[in-house]
Amino acid sequence: MRRMRRLRASAAIRSLVQETRLHKEQLVYPLFVTEGENIKNPVDSMPGIYQYSIDRLGEECERIRESGVRSLLLFGIPAHKDAAGSQAYDRDGITQRAIRYLKKEWSAFLVIADVCLCEYTSHGHCGLVDGCRILNDETLPLLVKMSVSLAEAGADIIAPSDMMDGRVAAIRGGLDQAGFTETPILSYSAKYASGYYAPFRDAAHSAPGFGDRKTYQMDPPNVREAMREMEADIAEGADILMVKPGLAYLDVLRAAAERFDYPMAAYNVSGEYAMVKAAAQNGWIDERRIVMENLLAMRRAGADIIITYHALDAAGWLEDA
Ligand code: PBG
Ligand code: ZN
Q1: Which terminus, N or C, of the chain has the lesser number of Cβ atoms within 10 Å?
Q2: How many helices and strands in the chain, by DSSP H and E?
Q3: What would the pLDDT profile of 277-293 be if each residue is shown by its tens digit?
Q4: In the chain, what is the greatest distance between 2 CA atoms, to the nearest angstrom?
C-alpha cells in the first residue's frame, strides 16, 4: 500500500522531506520613526508596534540586532504636512535623519526606504492633487527628488509604494543621474487598494483626507493586470518585485513567481497582523503556530522576501524550533 504517513512519522523525517523553509534572512521588519523627543508611542491597532523618535530608536535596534533580522523598511512621520509633501524630500526630513542615524550607529542593518508622499501630504494622498484628481505625471519629479534624497541619506534600497504610472523609470533615471547607479529599486508592483492597510494608516498618519486610493492602487479582483504591472516595472528597471497585501493575494504571488525570474517580495500588511494579534489576545488561536503557518504560506506561494511586523517574533521562534 502507498503509505503517505511513512514520511510523517517523526520530526526528523518530516524535516528531511520539508519542501519549503523560512530563514530569518528573508524577513524585513517595518519601522515607524516620528519627529520629537523621548517618544515610544504604541500603535493601538498593532499590538507590539510603536512609533519611535530617533533618540529612542536605539532600544528597538537593539531588539532587532538580537533577533538576527537584518533588513528594515523605514517609514517616517513628519510633524509638518503640506499639499506637496515637502518634508518627503527635505534633506533634514525625519526619514532622512533616521536613515543617517541608522547607517551611522547600526551599519549592519540593510535600510529599505519606502517612497510615497501620503505620510507627508496634508490631504493624505500618494501624489499631488488637483481638486479631487490625483495627478500622475506631476507627481513623478517629487518621487524622484524623494528617492535621491533618501539615497543621499544612505538608504540601501529604494521602495516606491505610490502606484503612479512610470515611477520606476523616473526614479531609476533620477538615481542614475545623481550617481546612485548601484542602488536597487524594490517596486511595490502589484499593490491593491485594500482594506487591510487601515492599521498602518493609524501608525503612519497617512489616511486619505478625501476619497480613496482606487484610482491609483490596483482593483482587488484582477490578477492578469498585476502581471502587466510587473512587466512594466521590469521594463522600467525594477530589481525586486512585490505583491501587497501578501496573505490575501497568494494567488497573485504564485502567478508572479512562476512568470518572472526576479526576486519576489510579499508584504504581510498591517491588517493581516492586527487580525492575528487580536485573535491571539483573545486566546482564540495559537499565535506562534498561526504566524509561522502564515509566513510559510507566503514562502510556498513564491515569496523570497517577506515584509512582516511579526519579523522579530518569528526570528525568535525559528531559533528555538
Ligand atoms: C504608503 C504605504 C502604505 C503601506 C505601505 N506603504 C499604505 C497605503 O498605501 O495606504 C501599507 C502597509 C501596511 O498596511 O502594513 N503608500
Ligand atoms: Zn502612499
Answers
A1: N
A2: 11, 12
A3: 999 999 999 999 999 99
A4: 70
Quote the ligand 2 centre to 116 CA distance (angstroms).
5
Q: Which ligand is nearest to the CA of 201?
A: 1
Distance 246 CA to ligand 1 centre (A): 12
Distance from C-alpha of 126 to C-alpha of 136, rounded to nearest angstrom? 10
Ligand 1: atom nearest CA of 269 is 15
Q: Mean pLDDT across the stretch 184-193? A: 98
Q: Tell me: the pLDDT tens digits for 38-74? A: 999 999 999 999 999 999 999 999 999 999 999 999 9
Q: Which residues contact 96 (CB under 8 A, 6 or more apart)?
A: 76, 90, 149, 150, 152, 153
HSE, side-chain direction, 13 A CA sphere, residue 196? 21
Residues noted as catalytic: 191, 244
* CA 182 to centroid of ligand 2, rounded, Å: 25
Nearest CA to 219 among 197, 192, 255, 251? 192
Is residue 117 within 8 A of residue 126, CB to CB? The reply is: yes
- Give the atom of ligand 1 at the shortest distance from the alpha carbon of 114: 6
Cis before 78 (ω within 30): no
Residue 208 identity (one-letter amino acid): P
Element holding 97 (H helix, E strand): helix 94-105
State the Cα–Cα distance between residues 268 and 105, nearest whole angstrom. Answer: 28
Q: Which residue has the cell 517596486?
A: 187
Expressed in angstroms and rounded, the spacing between residue 197 Cα and the centre of ligand 1 is 6
Per-residue pLDDT tens for 120-165? 999 999 999 999 999 999 999 999 999 999 999 999 999 999 999 9
Closest C-alpha residue for ligand 1 atom 10: 197
Q: Which residues line ligand 1 (CB under 6 A)?
A: 114, 116, 118, 126, 161, 197, 200-201, 206, 269-270
